[in-house]
Amino acid sequence: MPEVAPRGEIAAKLTIHPQFLAKSYFPASLLSSTGLRLIGSRAIEITPRRMVRDAELKAMPTATLIVAGTAQQFARASQLLQSDALSGAMTAQFNRLERVEPFQASDRKHGLDLAHFDGWAETVLHASFDDRDILGAFVSLATRLGAAVETGRARTVGGLTFLPMRVEPQHASDFVRGIEDFSHLRALRNMPLLGADPVESEGAAFRSVDIAPALPDSPASSQDLRAVIFDGGFTAGTLPWVTSFDAAGVPVVASELPHGEAVTSAFLFGAIADPPQAVAAPYCNVDHVRVLPSNATDLKVSDVIDRIIDTLQAARDEARPYQLANLSLGPRLPIVDNDPHEWTVRLDDFLSLGDLFMTVAVGNDGVQGSDLGRIQPPADAVNAFAVGSSDGNHPRSRRAPYSCLGPGRSPGLVKPDAVTFGGVRGSPVRLIDPTSGMIRQQYGTSYSAPLALRLAAGIQTAIAQDIRPIMLHALLISRAQMTARIHDQTEVGWGVLPESVDDILFSAPDEVVVMYQGMIAKGQPIRAAVPLPAGLATDERVQIAATFAYRAPVDPAHPVSYTRSGLEVRFQPDGISSANFFSKTDFDAEQSLRQDALKWETCRHKKRTFELERLTAPSFLIRYQGRDEGAGDEDALRDPVTGSLLPTNEQPSALPFALIVRLKVPNVSDLAEHVLNQFNVLAEVTLRAQVQT
């Protein structure tokens, strides 16, 4: 039927044998010889029919490539397979395919529940900016089938276009039957609700009888740092450190004010001790942008992400970008490995430039277990800092029961990134209510996220040198505390964040911390030395802890290869030969989706111990690496709304990175002095004494 097959193209799935997932095995010649084009991919677990060298058969993760082509092009593939003149290289590419099958309607309807369908649907198309004809064909078909299509809300990132639409519930079944075979339709699902705090349903949000301590009358420590919170609003004029805005088009509804004010209070003043102590001036001023509720209904999410991205982009366009941002709201549904949500994709796309550090709450449905209680979009964004809740402030604190669980999606499996105290029943987090002057007691990841952002603001304000947003990410991870005996990485990520900025900035006398930050482009490797001074009088083993983080452009059509490019980091104890340092995480089975999967993780953290004599010229070698599969890098250079090329300074041709090396030599109490004397290229970090941490 032409109406479901624009350009005469149909879609099929090519499932790769699990032992041939490395990018060097990508079937580029097969696709180019047949004229088939790669439009997407998905992860899948299969038991192959045969293993290399007759190894034991077992279930293994692999990738399914989604390709599009005409009937003639698929016939050409069949003819090639049967040809006696088929080259050895082409034969090998065919042999690495475990299955070839149609991309069926059932593949497109994960997340569609007609029994609970309320009239709003999310559709995802395999359509880039160059595929407007495909979008037009889909809109025409959907409209003919009775849908009200929000064409003005079509948003394209990479090879995917996200399009909301409304369908009368009584006609939903007929609509689905008519649209489900559209060849370039990737996903059709219910529109999710916005998340809620666990306290709302359990009735545990309450005001205490405690009067809040007096607020300071001094200005914020930094007048230059720009921070923004997206939430339910803030009463204008209540606090001098807050500028309140309404996003364009947001309805005039004040029902979300208490949540927005509590989140903002957490960022400005932190959690209030019991009994209360004096409150210091905030680290910086903050803009509060009201983005709730939705125009359609206060439970929908489609237009809220527009307001967030539009606000951030406007600040960037005006050359006054925000450096810090917090998001304590999002769609209330667990992430899906094969189909990243629009919120995740659009935030990842914006954050890939590295000029903004954003904390995102992971969600509050953790009590529902590892499936339904998995982290919620956009906490799976690889370029954001996902924050969960712990039940206390000390390093041995555990995940709060409501806090959503990891893992994230590869290459960001370690999610949440970290946890911090967000209150629990019986021990809520105490926040200043700016409108009443009382203490409000609540709990939820909504408050953990701004508390983590407050730590980042304290670091940024305290350090005199220029600290890039990616360095804030690495610094927080480097000081997160994780105890293997009591912590699970799916629950706490890299660990429990310290309560104080001082705990991040200051080190023991026998320890030195070196921070590297910058941009790495293709063909321009960087060597970061581990500054181990010569002549140390010690028999102790040397401890090296390293935290490596970077930002990367994404390709949402290919969740298996979600980041378009990445950075490879190798530890070289002698400056020449490589040694293992960043071992695989707790997610070894999932990481084995590719033999080189660890290369693509956007954050890594590890501590190792070495014999001193082995470290003759230790360093980390960092290289840029691109992918062969997925969409071309040029697609990342376009604006997600207009499709026009981004300005040169916004094109992700180089990746921002941060590397923190923490060197500890026990019983050498003047280690920093030795390092500074022997490594003249290093400069000592200067702290602003007036900042209260």
Automatic annotation (TrEMBL):
Residues 256-495 form the Peptidase S8/S53 domain. Transmembrane segments: none annotated. One of its GO terms (molecular function) is serine-type endopeptidase activity. GO terms for biological process: proteolysis. Pfam families: Peptidase_S8 (PF00082). Gene3D superfamilies: Peptidase S8/S53 domain. InterPro entries: Peptidase_S8/S53_dom (IPR000209), Peptidase_S8/S53_dom_sf (IPR036852), Y4bN_pept_dom (IPR034074). This is Peptidase S8/S53 domain-containing protein. It comes from Stenotrophomonas rhizophila. The lineage of its organism: Bacteria, Pseudomonadati, Pseudomonadota, Gammaproteobacteria, Lysobacterales.
